[in-house]
Amino acid sequence: MPMNPQWRLVARPQGLFKESDFRWVEDETPPLEDGQALVRTIYLSLDPTNRGWAAGDTYLPAVPLEGVMRGIAIGKVEESRAPGLAPGDVVQGLLGWQRYAVLPASLLTKLPPIPLPLSAHFGLLGHIGLTAWVGLLQVGQPKEGETLVVSAAAGAVGSLVGQIGKIHGMRVVGIAGSDEKCRWLTEELGFDAAVNYKRAPVFAGLRRECPNGIDVYFDNVGGDTLDTVLSLINLRARVVICGLISQYNATAVPPGPKNLPNLLVKRARMEGFIVLDHIDEAEKASADLIRWHLADRLKYRLDVVHGLEKAPAAVNRLFDGSNTGKLVVRVSEEDA
Ligand SMILES: NC(=O)c1ccc[n+]([C@@H]2O[C@H](COP(=O)([O-])OP(=O)(O)OC[C@H]3O[C@@H](n4cnc5c(N)ncnc54)[C@H](OP(=O)(O)O)[C@@H]3O)[C@@H](O)[C@H]2O)c1
């Protein structure tokens, strides 16, 4: 069996991840047991939720200290003792921050062939596309002519959400952390407007760009931005709590939003969701996402870091905003 370079989690992060929270180990790959497959990682997804998984119990149990860091990845089956999986099959699962994973077939999803590069399973489809699709269409309940605001709008989920809003006839305003990201949103993705929250107070920007108020807010960041949007919502607005990235590295309990009374006054709804609860809808979501993409109505962008050894430094790019689109690590070549 091949040697297996991997990152183990050795300390719970305080604030941003530090490289010393991880240890690089070259381990032996265990021999296969019946029902298991050996998978070589091709793309490792870096996600804001990695921070939560490392820090403690969330919607999944904490990654154990000294255990391989948990990560969603796409890989190729190299050897199999599992019925239904054969060498060459492309699969997705929690392969972890390592070059090889030995897992039971029940924890691996065989990916269907798509008329797009393999990386589209992360940039457009998979957990990212499903999050955008479920969060906006089912939780957000968009209606034509309404105004949608989305934060972290130039990120993986946010960039899809805004475009799906446009496909559904909404006025779409993105919030992002640089002028370059804002230009990408309006000039290439078709957003009606974008507000750089690092340049000027977001309240003034949203007041200017949302003259009819805000009907749907797709929240990826929480904190002050959520509070500001709550002050601008319309009657029966829907506030979709997808993520709270501004709070993931907090070392003290962050203050709650001050403008919650507006939910009452405006008879509005605020609802969170976790994509894992919607896996059975992935096929339907993928069909929509691929159709829109092929019709040139939905673009996606990958931000690719080369080399597993760079994962601990690269994951912090999600928190300093230096990623645009879906952040992934290229661990090995498709046809290695
Ligand atoms: N509910 C679910 O099931 C589910 C599933 C997937 C993802 N999510 C959530 O969706 C959100 C987006 O995830 P993603 O994978 O698409 O990541 P992403 O948006 O590609 O990357 C994160 C972005 O968040 C922004 N950001 C970072 N720190 C911030 C801060 N303090 N204040 C404001 N913005 C900040 C940065 O963009 P700027 O340059 O704009 O600051 C950064 O590029 C995250 O909150 C994630 O946890 C939820």
List the helices and strands and how they pair.
Elements: E1 3-9, E2 22-28, E3 36-45, H1 49-55, E4 73-80, E5 90-93, E6 100-104, E7 109-110, H2 120-123, H3 126-139, E8 147-150, H4 156-167, E9 171-176, H5 179-188, E10 193-196, H6 202-209, E11 214-219, H7 223-230, E12 233-241, H8 261-265, E13 269-272, H9 282-294, E14 302-306, H10 311-315, H11 317-320, E15 326-330
Helix pairs in contact: 3-4, 3-9
Bound molecules: NADP nicotinamide-adenine-dinucleotide phosphate (NAP).
What structural class is derived from the secondary structure elements? alpha/beta
The succession of helices and strands, N to C, reads EEEHEEEEHHEHEHEHEHEHEHEHHE
CA radius of gyration is: 20 Å
Q: How far apart are the termini?
A: 16 Å
Low-pLDDT regions: none
Shape label = globular
Helix content: 25-40%
Q: Note the total helix count.
A: 11
Bound small molecules, deduplicated: NADP nicotinamide-adenine-dinucleotide phosphate
Major pleated sheet: 7 strands, mixed
Strand content: 25-35%
**Tally of strands:** 15
Characterize the structure shown.
The chain is built from eleven helices and 15 strands. With 336 residues, the chain is of the alpha/beta class. Strands 3, 4, 5, 6, 7, 14 and 15 form a seven-stranded mixed beta sheet that branches. Strands 10-9-8-11-12-13 form a six-stranded parallel beta sheet, sandwiched between helices. A two-stranded antiparallel ribbon has the order 1-2. Bound molecules: NADP nicotinamide-adenine-dinucleotide phosphate. NADP nicotinamide-adenine-dinucleotide phosphate binds at residues 47-49, 127, 131, 152, 154-158, 176-178, 181, 220-221, 242-243, 245-246, 273-275, 318-319, 321, 323, 327.
